[in-house]
Write a structure and sequence with these properties.
The complex is a heterodimer of chains A (202) and B (109).
Chain A: H1 19-25, H2 27-30, H3 35-45, H4 52-79, H5 85-91, H6 94-100, H7 125-149, H8 153-187
Helix pairs in contact in A: 1-4, 3-4, 3-7, 4-8, 7-8
Chain B: H1 7-10, H2 13-20, H3 25-49, H4 54-78
Helix pairs in contact in B: 3-4
The chains are: A mainly alpha (202), B mainly alpha (109).
């Protein structure tokens, strides 16, 4: 189960409101490569992992992604404090504002709401881990795009931290895939249901 | 390696700390907690894929002890970080209006 510490993993102290930037950053809250997607993916995949190392890794990275989700939500929240109606109209934030005001709602920049269709849980550890590697790279790429579109140093500081964490997660998942494949070569014992596949599971 | 290369060390420490924290003892203590607990968590991920690394485990254990002690100092002075650590007198401190939630903008409660 989860305990909650009333602190952010890394501080978010944004001085200047910027609803346009909030639209870009919201994509890492509820978008396809965002933190909600990542945490749900890893926390769902961990059940059918074949050994404790993988269960532990997915639980820990999934939990960290929840902490990142909180940070991204904090960024969006702070970027939309103290804005007025003209700012909403001019920044393109108006579409989001119409249904959510300055609430923090899981959606991407285009306003499409979050969906579990963004994640895959195949139950096959090799497939799932490879999906995780791709997910971390996609998240990094999206953070790159946010950095391209942002000139706010307070926001960029946090985004750079989150981006670095995606790279580190990629390292960990890479190690996990290698270790899993070593174990598979040993005895082919981690593929489910060898008996269910007429002895030819691959 | 893992710990020295974390973002807390890569950037110009002084510049970024000034941006992220106010110059008071509460923020300074929270800064130490966030640094130590982040370093510990990063090590936790490393230990998940390197369970036999004694050096990492030793550092991890030490960091967790530091975090626990810093958190206790913080909670004694500035209110509970976990609901279960709320003091036993009313009003319930966890939901008390005087404590800010971590996403609050500066000077907002």
């Amino acid at each position: 189960m989860w305990e909650y510490d009333r602190k952010l993993m890394y501080p978010v102290k944004i001085k200047n409101p910027n609803p346009q930037l909030a639209r870009y950053v919201i994509s890492q809250y509820g978008g396809p490569d965002g933190e909600l997607s990542a945490s749900l993916r890893y926390l769902s995949q961990r059940y059918t992992m074949p050994d404790n190392q993988l269960r532990g890794l997915l639980t820990d990275i999934g939990t960290e992604e929840l902490a990142h989700l909180e940070m991204v939500g904090a960024i969006v929240y702070q970027l939309t404090r103290g804005i007025d109606v003209p700012a909403v109209k001019e920044s393109g934030f108006d579409n989001y504002f119409m249904n959510h005001t300055t609430g923090v709602y899981p959606a991407n920049t285009s306003g499409e709401p979050f969906t579990a269709a963004y994640i895959a849980v195949t139950g096959d550890p090799v497939a799932d881990l490879n999906e995780d590697l791709a997910a971390e790279q996609k998240a990094r790429a999206t953070y790159n795009n946010i950095l391209r579109m942002s000139d706010d140093p307070d926001v960029n500081d946090v985004i750079k931290f989150l981006r670095e964490r995606e790279i580190v997660h990629y390292q960990r998942f890479g190690e996990a895939v290698t270790q899993l494949q070593d174990k598979l070569t040993e005895k082919n014992k981690f593929y489910m249901g060898k008996d269910n596949c007429n002895g030819r599971c691959n | 390696m893992y710990y020295p290369n974390t973002p807390y060390c890569i950037d110009n420490m002084t510049e970024n700390i000034a941006r992220r924290y106010n110059n008071n003892s509460k923020d300074e203590l929270m800064c130490q907690i966030q640094q130590a607990s982040f370093a510990a968590y990063d090590l936790q991920l490393y230990l998940d894929t390197h369970p036999d690394c004694a050096e990492a485990l030793e550092l991890y254990t030490k960091l967790n002890a530091t975090v626990a002690s810093l958190k206790q100092d913080y909670e004694n002075a500035y209110g509970p970080l976990r609901a279960a650590n709320s003091p036993c007198d009313t009003p319930f401190k966890w939901a008390d209006t005087c404590y800010e939630w971590p996403w609050a903008k500066n000077k907002e409660v």
